[in-house]
Amino acid sequence: MTGVGEVFPEAEHRECMYHLVSNFKKRYSGEVFDENLWAAAYSWNPYLFGKHWTKMESTNPNATDYLRKCHTRLWTRSQFSTICKVDYVTNNLAECFNNWIKHHKSMKSKAYDQVESKEKNIQEARWISFAPHN
Known about the structure:
Blueprint: H1 3-7, H2 17-25, H3 31-42, H4 46-59, H5 61-70, H6 92-130
Helix pairs in contact: 3-4, 4-5
């Protein structure tokens, strides 16, 4: 999704922790991750984040390598800018909003399809009226 970056180039792009954990658990599991992954996300300073990260990394370096390589957006409060005053680590608000408007979004698509169909019919009618008749 590059649209947000194009419209708001200075905006901080974060990753939803819920989705990160869902993907992470498909590859890695264990008590150390249950105790430290969410705690790392909620850590408000680099020191606390580092404590949780070190515990995970010492247990399974492949897991933290995966996070470094595959989850490059911001997902921990310790990395969030202090300019933005929202410190959510999930996108629950966006998910709720999208669910609330999904009916209207599909209506827009249907309306767009109808307009596009009418434009096509008009263009075909113009082409037929200007086409040479034998």
